[in-house]
Amino acid sequence: xxxxxxxxxxxxxxxxxxxxxxxxxxxxxxxxxxxxxxxxxxxxxxxxxxxxxxxxxxxxxxxxxxxxxxxxxxxxxxxxxxxxxxxxxxxxxxxxxxxxxxxxxxxxxxxxxxxxxxxxxxxxxxxxxxxxxxxxxxxxxxxxxxxxxxxxxxxxxxxxxxxxxxxxxxxxxxxxxxxxxxxxxxxxxxxxxxxxxxxxxxxxxxxxxxxxxxxxxxxxxxxxxxxxxxxxxxxxxxxxxxxxxxxxxxxxxxxxxxxxxxxxxxxxxxxxxxxxxxxxxxxxxxxxxx
Amino acid sequence: xxxxxxxxxxxxxxxxxxxxxxxxxxxxxxxxxxxxxxxxxxxxxxxxxxxxxxxxxxxxxxxxxxxxxxxxxxxxxxxxxxxxxxxxxxxxxxxxxxxxxxxxxxxxxxxxxxxxxxxxxxxxxxxxxxxxxxxxxxxxxxxxxxxxxxxxxxxxxxxxxxxxxxxxxxxx
Lengths: 290, 172
Description:
heterodimer; A: alpha+beta; Thrombin, subunit H; six-stranded antiparallel β-barrel; six-stranded antiparallel barrel; 31% strand; B: mainly alpha; 8 helices; globular
């Protein structure tokens, strides 16, 4: 169908106007500091609006899967709970268990008694295809989130919060060559550094494991608790293979337990003692006179 | 005005605009803009595509040669060029506006020309002020800045146009 010349002409003019205006705004954004900031702010808020809707649709489609995973986690927690209760009953008796339970219920809201506090957050954006991946979470300053907080799931250390806005948080993903997690392997308690293998998806390498430590295929790798970001004993992955490097250490290839493609909810960890631990880590072991 | 006169007028206005940007700093919120006058003075029959490209180009030259943000004048002038025929249509009947070759107070009457320039500057300064401040600051101040600039610049444009008309009449 041929358009009448008048409409054709009007459309052409409008198109040229839009092109020139967009070009003008792009120039303004490129050359003005305030303008660039404000335009990027508007673009980001549009993007986050779009991501949120997109994630909402995706989450709805995956509800069945999420439900199954939560049931599984619940079963594991129940099993652990029974094991702890049995241990207390066997070693210290029924009365001590009742006393401890009462004490826990009474102090459940007192954050000063616990080392870690957890905040559940929804993943708004998650990149996995680059060498420096990141996540955007739907919790921010108004939810008490600050920079340098660990982000976990029951199946792994996901990353560390790096920039916090009023409503959203930027997390540097563990799928990042520059990010390292302190981890221990199996029953040996040998601690090393776990780093993501960007060239092999879903795997990481645990380095600095002493030669005398016995490593077997299937050994579980946990967070060590030596860093102030992540609590100890969170399972991260399973040992797949190992090799000796430079004749002094073992290098273990670890298959990550958490599938980063299916990351819907995460837990942000606040370590109440982080500041104290970090300030002590800065202390120089010797004074100037020594 | 013939083609040669339009080119001379365009060059004079460009130089005036650069001069105003460089030396006419009366009060920070007040900006003297004479480029929209040239866009409006070009004949009604002037090709709209060319007019938009010309407006964008002249705006860009002013942005590049003055101390401002590159793209500010270019974007605002393009909008004036795009809405030129609509503004002309609001103050004049369609058959009259297509018939005239020269747009100006001598042909349209002072009142109509002033109203047309008010509309042109309203478009220009809405885009200019919003892009310049990006919505920062009090809404009342933004409105005040737009209204002040529209009135002051429309008056300057009318005075300049009378000057050009006087020269055209004197030169025959």
